[in-house]
Amino acid sequence: MIKGLFKLFILFIVYSTVVSCSEQNIPDLPENPGNTNQGIASIDQTQINANGGGFIIRVKTNGTWEASSSETWCTLSRASGNGNGSISGYMKANTEAERSVIITIIAGKEKAEFTLKQLAGNGSNPDPDPSPDPNPGPDPEKPSGYAGRIEIPVLKGGSMNIFHTWTTKENGKETVTYSYEYDCTKKHVRWVAFTFDNVTSQKNVERKDAYQTDPNIPAQYRTERSDYYQPYNRGHMVASSDRLYNREANSQTFYYSNISPQLIDGFNQGGSTWDAIENKVQEWGKVSNSQDTTYIVKGTSIDYAILATGKNGVQIPKYYFSTILSYKNGQYKAIGFYIEHTYDKSQNIKQCAKSIDELESITGIDFYHNLPDNIESEVERSYKESDWAW
Fold first, then answer.
1. pTM higher than 0.85 for the full model?
2. Catalytic residue, candidates 188, 236, 341, 369
3. What whole-number distance in Å separates Cα of residue 77 and Cα of residue 70?
4. Cystine design at 263: which of 55, 70, 188, 267 (Cβ 3.0–4.6 Å)?
């Protein structure tokens, strides 16, 4: 759980002499342009639009540190830590004049200060997701529309990050296929999110390779077939096999916005560890009872760790993750996975397993924040191997 200035969670850092999933902790700080890197900390952006949105601070120090925000409308996920870590920040929507906030990081005698500006609003109540919600929640602090769904992480927001939800009509009822947040500057999704229920778990069609450009992405930021080349191929984020309940839903997984350049042998194909994780998440996720739902988020490290820059400026992620929140028989449970983008096929998926809190600390993404606070805190704190059929 990442939420509020005074809610803390523990960052576990495991050291080993053998390279494994358990070693994949906080990566090094990225080289950020401009005056965004101040020694002990860096920030990924210093301007947020009026609709509100998120930002990430990455701290790099050996000792303890403290973080603070000068304004209550700008919250931080962590107020302190020890060693390398990440902080997610979030600004509420602004309906008035341009405003600014100072974020301060102190580690021993070192100090970093970042001034962030938020653009002026137009006097209305802007919403990062204007899509209609047939069942809006009563909590004004929760986002509305599709962004208010349980599977949707906190949006990073900003004019260069596009949030969209694909839907289909199933028996006359709207069914959500999946949602994504796409970073135009990286030409890659930050994450995708979807659910399995008794409708979307069904297999009614076969895969059809309907690759196509995404009309929701401005032309200059789209990717296409020529951007995926050896040793990388077209790796689905939402797998084709995740959406077989109808033909349109399956076709929507073939938009290039849902495609990531992945190493062919040893990662995207050939019995890889990532393939095993995806299969296991799919196996655990599918349900038949109409009262049960499974919430999935898959994503990458494009915010902080890039393996390479491909053709046309497409960023190739260094790490991938997957989370699963299961609601069955009235009970929630959750688990996550984190893996490096390599040729290695030897890793056991248990070595890659992490709690949601650990994943949030690594990625800087706030998962499942639309759950009630008490449930979110409990399911994200840890996981039990015995809860999952390995």
1. no
2. 236
3. 14
4. 267
